[in-house]
Amino acid sequence: MIDDIARIGASAPARISAMASLDELRALEAELLGKTGELTALKKGLGTLDPEERKIAGQAMNEARSTLEALLADRRSVLENAQRAITLASERLDLTEITDELERGTVHLVTQTWDRLVDVFLGMGFTVAEGPEVETDWYNFEALNIPAAHPARGMWDTLYVDLGDPETVLMRTHTSPVQIRVMTDGEPPIYAIMPGRVYRRDTADASHMPVFHQIEGLVVDRNISFADLAGTLEAFTSAYFGGSIHSRLRPSYFPFTEPSAEYDINCVFCEGSGCRTCGQTGWLELGGCGMVHPTVLSNVGLDPEEWSGFAFGFGLDRLALMRHGVDDIREMYTGDVRFLEQFPS
Ligand code: PHE
Hints:
By secondary structure, this protein is α+β, with helices and mostly antiparallel strands. The protein has eleven helices and ten strands.
């Protein structure tokens, strides 16, 4: 029996240190010390020995047990440390990727254009106003001298909102209703621009979107003339496009301005000599303008004998397209990163 105990004791250190995982170690522990283990089996034989031998064998057995337990405990802590190191390594968060080279988005081309326009007009002494995108018939049409059933309503393909009486609430078709709000809420002199999103019942194509942006301008003061309108648009044109681009006005019609005009600029691609973009005319059409109609002034309680003014409105997206030579307005709204990243802000 003593020999058997010695044999177990002698082979144990090598067996224990060969265990590569906690599970293996646990199995070996059961094999050595467990209820059906090797030492326990020997212990059962103690009863057959005479008292003197039993004492010696029992002592040897206890010593062997505590030696084995110590060896097992040492091995267990080595394996546990190794396991912890593996877990830590696998749960480690690599934060070194966050560097200055992280790709950042850019301000959208429409927003860039909006900001630049606002800058230019602020520099010319204008203030900025905004109005709601859902408007009433009064602000979008009536107050602007476009009565119900007037054929001029056909100039705007309107999206009505299902609210209140039929055809009384709508998505604004232009930024001109903000003129009415500015004149109703404040007093002249007024020098304001009104950028914003507008809506039309249009199918998207290369030059149309059902949702797009306009920028409106309104001046109301004493003795404002058509020359002030022409001069302001010319000053804006060279401030925004550079000194080689000029503006011209062509007679047109809008119910809320009289006289009315179309506002054109020299083609920014050929600078007036004629190219594909301007259809060989040398001019690009930017928007509408004119002297505020006396009826519009009366509608907001201003005396047309005392006050006069001019207004203009043009497409903000169109302006951005022209400036950057983009030939399809839909590009602006597909959210394609390859398009957007060409306009770093
Ligand atoms: N609101 C007009 C449009 O959307 C443009 C315009 C604004 C014309 C101001 C004259 C004066 O077509």
